[in-house]
TrEMBL record:
Family statement: Belongs to the peptidase A22B family.
Main location: endoplasmic reticulum
Highest classification ranks of the organism: Eukaryota, Metazoa, Ecdysozoa, Arthropoda, Hexapoda
Locations listed in the record: Endoplasmic reticulum membrane
Pfam families, alphabetized: Peptidase_A22B
GO cellular component terms, semicolon-separated: cytoplasmic side of endoplasmic reticulum membrane; lumenal side of endoplasmic reticulum membrane
Protein name (record): Minor histocompatibility antigen H13
Length: 369
């Protein structure tokens, strides 16, 4: 009887400990916390698309003025992209199954630290140029390292930069060090937003057909890897790199040290973003003084993102965002162009018109002569 009396308090103590452990394993959230988290994700998703689209217009104009031809995605590239992405995703999944994710993430952290510093420097360059007083001189520098002499000389390093670029690099290195050592979610988001803006600015779809092929291919890719397998969700949760935007759902409870995150992959921002940027460049080519197709598709993207969040909470399951974003981003401009009589102009528009084969052969023969 005495033994049973002493066992009861110990059983109760173990039960209390187990209850406390279950509660603390998953940080508490609230309706307000969820609303703040997903509203923040939506804002962080639309800002890179908006600013990246206008930067892409400026970038294309600078390339044309300098006489340089920029790299664009072909139809073949668009067809192959989902297959290459699938191989990369499954390869990461296999690595995480057989190798320690700590070592893999350590390697990837160093890689994305380097890329993130470059992306942040590129993003900060116009901001620093605007903020630094005119009294501070912007001194140009040129690092030129060659091999050989005279006609046989080849460039190894030929890099031009200014003192403002050095300021950008120092700021980016400080933010990168913060991410490298703390892995804080704010530092992760700074890198992620920089990647997204640079991606929308520099990755150009040459025409709408290529965009349709790419979006439809990734539409099927996203559905298969989210609904068909657990590969996408497993990699997203194991992959500690700024390839996703995160925001804590328990921010109101735990502050900036929160740990229960809502997340959105950068692919769900950059892929629709480069198509929306193409529509802005199409609007500029029409010279009507409006951004009709860009604004309409941009609004459709926001609605598609909100629909993704709503369905995810109704069915309590991770959703492939492109399942909702692709129909919104493709259906809106195509329907509006059909109604407004711009469908032919939309499909005929090209950032970089293809040179006819006869003209290309003539120019080649002239160069040879």
């Amino acid at each position: 009887m005495a033994d049973s009396a002493t066992e009861i308090p110990s059983i109760l103590e173990e039960s209390v400990k187990e209850t406390v452990k279950n509660v603390t394993d998953k940080p508490p959230t609230s309706i307000e916390g969820l609303a703040i988290a997903y509203l923040s994700l939506v804002i962080m998703a639309i800002l890179p698309i908006f600013f990246g689209s206008f930067r892409s217009v400026k970038y294309l104009k600078e390339q044309k003025e300098s006489g340089q031809s920029h790299e664009t995605m072909s139809n073949k590239d668009a067809l192959m992209f989902p297959l290459i992405a699938s191989c990369a995703l499954f390869g990461l999944y296999v690595f995480f199954q057989f190798f320690s994710k700590e070592y893999i993430n350590l390697l990837l952290t160093g890689y994305f630290f380097f890329l993130g510093v470059l992306a942040l420097s590129h993003l900060l360059s116009p901001i620093i140029s605007f903020m630094v007083p005119a009294s501070v001189p912007n001194v140009p520098y040129h690092i030129h390292f060659t091999r050989g002499e005279r006609d046989g000389r080849t460039d190894i390093v030929n890099y031009k930069f200014t003192s403002y670029d050095v300021i950008c690099l120092i700021i980016s290195l400080c933010l990168g060090a913060w991410y490298l050592f703390k892995k804080h979610w704010i530092a992760n988001n700074l890198f992620g937003i920089a990647f997204a803006i640079n991606g929308v600015e520099l990755l150009h779809l040459n025409n709408v057909v290529t965009g349709c092929i790419l979006l439809c291919g990734l539409f099927l890719y996203d559905i298969f890897w989210v609904f068909g397998t657990n590969v996408m969700v497993t990699v997203a949760k194991s992959f500690e790199a700024p390839i996703k935007l995160v925001f804590p759902q328990d921010l109101l409870v735990n502050g900036f040290n929160a740990s229960n995150f809502a997340m959105l992959g950068l692919g769900d921002i950059v892929v629709p973003g480069i198509f929306i940027a193409l529509l802005l460049r199409f609007d500029k080519s029409l010279k009507r003084g409006s951004e009709f197709y860009f604004r309409a598709t941009f609004s459709a993207y926001i609605l598609g993102l909100l629909a993704t969040i709503l369905v995810m909470h109704i069915f309590k399951h991770a959703q492939p965002a492109l399942l909702y974003l692709v129909p919104a981003c493709l259906g809106t401009p195509l329907t509006l162009a059909l109604l407004r009589g711009d469908i032919n102009a939309l499909f005929n528009y090209e950032d970089q018109p293809a040179i006819p084969e006869t003209a290309a052969s003539d120019s080649k023969s002239k160069k040879t002569e």
